[in-house]
Automatic annotation (TrEMBL), chain A:
<feature type="domain" description="Pyruvate:ferredoxin oxidoreductase core">
    <location>
        <begin position="262"/>
        <end position="365"/>
    </location>
</feature>
<dbReference type="Pfam" id="PF17147">
    <property type="entry name" value="PFOR_II"/>
</dbReference>
<keyword id="KW-0560">Oxidoreductase</keyword>
<dbReference type="InterPro" id="IPR033412">
    <property type="entry name" value="PFOR_II"/>
</dbReference>
<protein>
    <submittedName>
        <fullName>Pyruvate synthase subunit PorA</fullName>
        <ecNumber>1.2.7.1</ecNumber>
    </submittedName>
</protein>
<dbReference type="GO" id="GO:0019164">
    <property type="term" value="F:pyruvate synthase activity"/>
</dbReference>
<dbReference type="InterPro" id="IPR002880">
    <property type="entry name" value="Pyrv_Fd/Flavodoxin_OxRdtase_N"/>
</dbReference>
<dbReference type="Pfam" id="PF01855">
    <property type="entry name" value="POR_N"/>
</dbReference>
<feature type="domain" description="Pyruvate flavodoxin/ferredoxin oxidoreductase pyrimidine binding">
    <location>
        <begin position="17"/>
        <end position="226"/>
    </location>
</feature>
UniProtKB/TrEMBL annotation, chain B:
<feature type="domain" description="Pyruvate/ketoisovalerate oxidoreductase catalytic">
    <location>
        <begin position="10"/>
        <end position="177"/>
    </location>
</feature>
<dbReference type="InterPro" id="IPR019752">
    <property type="entry name" value="Pyrv/ketoisovalerate_OxRed_cat"/>
</dbReference>
<dbReference type="InterPro" id="IPR011894">
    <property type="entry name" value="PorC_KorC"/>
</dbReference>
<dbReference type="InterPro" id="IPR051626">
    <property type="entry name" value="Oxidoreductase_gamma_subunit"/>
</dbReference>
<protein>
    <submittedName>
        <fullName>Pyruvate synthase subunit PorC / Ketoisovalerate oxidoreductase subunit VorC</fullName>
        <ecNumber>1.2.7.1</ecNumber>
        <ecNumber>1.2.7.7</ecNumber>
    </submittedName>
</protein>
<dbReference type="Pfam" id="PF01558">
    <property type="entry name" value="POR"/>
</dbReference>
<dbReference type="GO" id="GO:0043807">
    <property type="term" value="F:3-methyl-2-oxobutanoate dehydrogenase (ferredoxin) activity"/>
</dbReference>
<dbReference type="GO" id="GO:0019164">
    <property type="term" value="F:pyruvate synthase activity"/>
</dbReference>
<keyword id="KW-0670">Pyruvate</keyword>
Length: 392, 183
């Protein structure tokens, strides 16, 4: 495939990226809004355009089980799911990380039941936040495409060996037609060569994986996971840097927009970052000293990058897409409050939860959140969270 | 930036129309988005699709609330909704109807340009059934000049294949010629 710019549905572009990454095994069960990704991959495999095994399993629990098996023998492995599908595979999702099995998942974020809803928010991914996977969030179709390749580079690196989830907002991204630049196969091969994983299952070199652990070893196994994911950070930085050098598109754990002289910032994760930038442009015209801080790398959380990005700011208005019921607010705000707790001159944090289950958050809504949030911060109203747009 | 909203019924191809406009614009080197009003798709139920076209990267991840152009694929929808909702002065409203623009009693006194296309007749004659999404694109192209017929040929043929694509193209070209553009 030659380098080209296409108008294409983001799900299809992502599936094409998976094919260009030359995966060996795809196991998935269709679920809205992820379905187009795996449907298109099944077509690619059925048409003989990709020499891979497509395993049409009977459930997501089985999908992740197949992925664990294929990754364990050293095959490049892909899956995709959303919401209830992720809930059903949660048991094996944790095991994939504990067994240090590289793979990439497109996690098309969708709300969890109940009430039953098919639309987008971040409640599904927050359910598996602590599983030990690397979590990347993307904002547009190009980032979905690019991060498939970066994802495999990171996940399969011998110093990492961890599964990686690319979180993309369901519908908002999966069902969007927009321009995506496809890189040529030669560039992809150069960036992402086929790998032979060490320690893969092979009859000539028998090893045991996923063993039972007595209390004497469980603690150490968990520390191994913690170290593993912390150690992935330099590899992530390197993988994004090299991709940027090849394509001109650079990614960073924390990204900022017009923050240099900003007194306060809106903090987003996922596709909302783009709308926020648009609104910040408009507010800047009116003299507001506001910027956007965007979290791209969610796990391992880039504490130092984040602290640097918000240093000297008066306040942060954090937009969450999920609630921790009975807890201190949204998961992102909770994370950021922890990151700044006890630090001198830390910015005040005001937390909004918005856009649950696909409720549209328009430019006018962002404007209201930013200005109202700024006022709350100046009055010291920083406890808990506000459920934006809640009807009386 | 030009923002477009399409009203149709499930199965009429409103989403496909939005996609074809976006792909044609992107192929010209512009930036565009096309997306449905997300949800379960039901044949016959009112559906909305959106499209944005700009000469720079589009950063908005929300529905279109203030359309510059509205396309109504099914005239029956006019009694159910206000197609001009959110539309400012100078907007363009393109309706599938046998009526002439001056006979359409929508937005009297407002400076909205009404454009009518007898798309049911054209599509029935050219395609054998009143699936009007591609026909209405002829009216859109003529009324807005945003893209040309030639720009949409490639995505149209890719989408529908040669045989069906050429029939759709003919319906579109007829609509381009036969459209009635109001004052």
């Amino acid at each position: 495939m030659a380098r080209q710019r296409k108008g294409i549905e983001v799900s299809i572009a992502m599936a094409d990226a998976v094919a260009q990454a030359n995966v060996d095994v795809i196991a998935a069960y269709p679920i809205t809004p992820q379905t187009h990704i795996v449907e298109h991959l099944s077509e690619i495999v059925a048409n003989g355009e990709l020499d891979a095994e497509y395993v049409p399993v009977e459930s997501e629990h089985s999908a992740m089980s197949v992925c664990c098996g294929s990754s364990a023998v050293g095959a490049r492995t892909f899956t995709s799911t959303s919401s209830q599908g992720l809930a059903l595979m949660a048991e094996i999702f944790y095991i994939a990380a504990s067994m240090r099995l590289p793979m990439v998942m497109a996690l098309a974020n969708r709300s969890l039941s109940g009430p039953l809803s098919i639309w987008n928010d971040h409640t599904d991914t927050m359910m598996v936040r602590d599983a030990g996977w690397i979590h990347v969030f993307v904002e547009n179709g190009q980032e979905c495409y690019d991060n498939v390749f970066c994802g495999y580079r990171i996940s399969e690196d011998p110093s990492v060996m961890l599964p990686l989830a690319i979180n993309l907002d369901g519908f908002i991204l999966t069902h969007m037609i927009e321009p995506v630049i496809y890189e040529d196969n030669e560039t992809i091969r150069k960036y992402l060569p086929d790998v032979r994983m060490k320690n893969a299952l092979h009859p000539d070199n028998p090893v045991s994986m996923g063993c039972f652990a007595m209390p004497e070893i469980y603690t150490e196994a968990q520390m191994n996971r913690e170290q593993g994911i912390l150690n992935s950070y330099p590899t992530i930085i390197k993988a994004w840097k090299e991709w940027g050098d090849l394509t001109g598109r650079y990614y960073h754990p924390i990204e900022t927009y017009r923050t240099e002289d900003a007194e306060y910032c809106i903090v987003t994760m996922g596709s909302y970052g783009e709308t926020a930038m648009e609104v910040v442009d408009a507010l800047r015209e009116e003299g507001e000293k506001v910027g956007v801080v965007k979290i791209r790398l969610w796990r391992p959380f880039p504490f130092e990058d984040f602290r640097r990005a918000v240093e000297g700011k008066k306040s942060l208005i954090v937009v969450d897409r999920a609630i921790s019921f009975g807890g201190p607010g949204g998961p992102v705000a909770l994370e950021l409050r922890s990151a700044l707790y006890g630090r001198p001159n830390a910015p005040a944090i005001v937390n909004y939860v918005a856009g649950l289950a696909g409720r549209d958050v328009a430019r006018s809504d962002f404007r209201k959140i930013i200005l109202e949030g700024k006022a709350k911060a100046s009055k010291g109203e920083t406890e808990g969270f506000t459920l934006y747009g809640l009807r009386g | 930036m030009l923002e477009i909203r399409l009203h149709g019924r499930g199965g009429q191809g409103a989403v496909t129309s939005a996609e074809l406009i976006a792909i044609a614009a992107i192929n010209k080197g512009n930036f565009a988005q096309a997306f449905p009003s997300f949800g379960p798709e039901r044949r016959g139920a009112p559906v909305v699709a959106f499209c944005r076209v700009d000469d720079k990267k589009i950063n908005i991840r929300a529905k279109v609330y203030k359309p510059d152009v509205v396309i109504v694929l099914d005239p029956g929808l006019l009694s159910l909704l206000d197609p001009t909702e959110g539309m400012g002065e100078g907007g363009i409203l393109i309706i599938n109807t046998k009526k002439k623009p001056q006979e359409v009693a929508i937005a009297p006194g407002r400076s909205i340009k009404v454009v009518t296309v007898d798309a049911n007749t054209i599509a029935t004659e050219e395609l054998g059934r009143p699936i009007v999404n591609t026909t209405m694109l002829g009216g859109f192209i003529r009324a807005t000049g945003l893209i040309g017929i030639d720009d949409i040929k490639e995505p149209l043929l890719e989408r529908f294949g040669k045989k069906l694509g050429e029939r759709n193209l003919k319906a579109m070209e007829r609509a381009y010629q036969e459209v009635s553009i109001g004052e």
